[in-house]
Amino acid sequence: MKDLLLITPPFTQLNTPYPATAYIKGFLNTKNISSFQTDLGIEVILKLFSKDGLQKIFNQKIDLHTISENAQRIYVLKEEYLKTIDQVIAFLQSKTPTLARQICSMNFLPEASRFNQLDDMEFAFGNMGLQDKAKHLATLYLEDLSDYIVENIDPDFGFSRYAERLGKSANSFDELYSKICGEPTFIDEFTLKILQEKLELVQPKLICFSIPFPGNLYSAFRCAKYIKEHYPHIKTAMGGGFPNTELRELKDKRVFEFFDFITLDDGELPIESLYENICHSEQSEESKFKRTFLLENGEVIYKNNSTRHDYKQADIGTPDYTDLQLDKYISVIEIANPMHSLWSDGRWNKLTMAHGCYWGKCTFCDISLDYIKIYEPISAKILVDRMEELIRTTGETGFHFVDEAAPPALMREVALEILRRNLVVTWWTNIRFEKSFTKDLCFLLKLSGCVAVSGGLEVASDRLLKLIDKGISVEQVAKVTRNFTEAGIMIHAYLMYGYPTQTIQETVDSLEMVRQLFEMGILQSGFWHQFAMTAHSPVGINPEEFGVTPIKQEILFANNDVDFTDKTGIDHGKFSFGLKKSLFNY
């Protein structure tokens, strides 16, 4: 038995746990509060993509005359899928590396439409090798099966999201509520069976769901409904990235049919307060809450009556990955690109160098919210202490610093501390393309084990970078990316199109600038995002200053992405395919 059960609902990542529950468990350890954590996402995927799971999928009734030619092909090859699935999953868990040779022979795996995109494998994997080539082929094999599930079993399925459309700025709770109250889906049945096993094992008093993305929201509600129906004595709470950004104006009381509490921003103190209220309520006359929504006398109220201050980053403990099945995660390679594969290939211990963003000015960003606004770096010594502790507890020496933007001065201190201790680690992080990333600093970072950085180039146009208040220029980005490249560190650029007042010519010019960076070899991968106006960004708070008109809607549930009209009248969505295809080709 444990007091708290911490859950990441399906689905986030296949290759490594989303770190929120590990952060919270590490903090709870410092308070001697007992907890158990589980990533339902990976557990459901492993049940689904097993011989028994696939058998259930292929047993679902379908009309072979009405399904697509691709689905027909997969169905006809079902015996081949049933024969190979357990072997492929074991290979992607790094348990059977010798299978790579069979996979690469190209006559082992059944193939459907995803394999049509195979171009020049020798070109793509000449610099990645046999294991990576096999991982890429095995990933295509899983994606074929995913296509079959989406077409014939459950249109909401996705490897890193589930029913995401229901959570994306759902100003009203109606559609989501209707689906939660309907029959459980095929995927839900897997989820709820595993959830029941965890509840019987842990017998918690409080269950905390961490919901980082819209693609976790539906499953969290489905699980919470199951708990309320079968274990009504257990309290349920929700926190994480989704409520922090989307549910700040929550009014719909139906949400509290499923969740007793919804906490905002840093989770440590709000969860400690919930624990004290639920497990030790006799100690205080009036319940104290920190940034928490709850239902009181039939009304949704927001309580923040605790006078205690949030914990300093130095005092929240080291993330604790205990309970998570670290050897069961699967590494996948969707695109034949060494930099791009970092997000989906290999187990990474997640740490943060600094809470918030030291720049905090970008006009498209949620700079009014605490997770960006409150900047608090951690000392290099404490950080590297935490790295050593995680190496001891997980056996993994790979680290992904998940900062909004890692501060260059602190990166330098961390690199020196790693070198002083003679640690052999591999790490990567997110940065701003600051001029302080000199050749010398880039070489120092490389020596300490830094293999890659990602950063926002956004729109490769000096006029728009100034409007965004990015604090960088295209020329500066080119110099910094060259410094990283010459030191042997890979670079991924986040790119944006459709920013207010952006013209078609500026989008084309931006694409050409990106092409040149690739041609010069100083950019290894990138990703285009269409600009989205969020309620908590400077553009969302003062839209008229940026030439956009928001389309107002009544907010009863989620509020983050805001629909708007741009005075230029350009439909930026029509560039989406071309921009993404160009990156794929570069």
Q: What's the total number of strands?
A: 19
Mean pLDDT: 92
Strand content: 5-15%
Rg value? 24 Å
Low-pLDDT residue intervals, each spanning 5 or more residues: none
Continuous helix count: 22
Distance between the termini: 54 Å
What percent of residues adopt helix (DSSP H or I)? 25-40%
**What gross morphology would you assign?**
globular
Q: Give the oligomeric state.
A: single chain
Coarse structural class: alpha/beta
Strand order, largest beta sheet: 2-1-5-6-7-8-9
Main sheet properties:
7 strands, mixed
Write the layout of secondary structure elements.
Elements: E1 4-8, H1 20-30, E2 35-39, H2 40-48, H3 51-59, H4 69-76, H5 78-92, H6 99-104, H7 121-125, H8 130-152, E3 157-158, E4 161-162, H9 174-181, H10 186-202, E5 206-210, H11 217-230, E6 235-239, H12 241-246, E7 261-263, H13 268-279, E8 292-296, E9 299-303, E10 349-351, E11 354-355, H14 370-373, E12 376-377, H15 380-394, E13 398-401, H16 408-420, E14 426-431, H17 439-447, E15 450-458, H18 462-468, H19 474-486, E16 490-497, H20 504-519, E17 525-530, H21 538-541, E18 548-550, E19 564-566, H22 576-585
Parallel strand pairs: 1-2, 1-5, 5-6, 6-7, 10-13, 13-14, 14-15, 15-16, 16-17
Antiparallel strand pairs: 3-4, 7-8, 8-9, 11-12, 18-19
Helix pairs in contact: 2-10, 3-5, 10-11, 15-16, 16-17
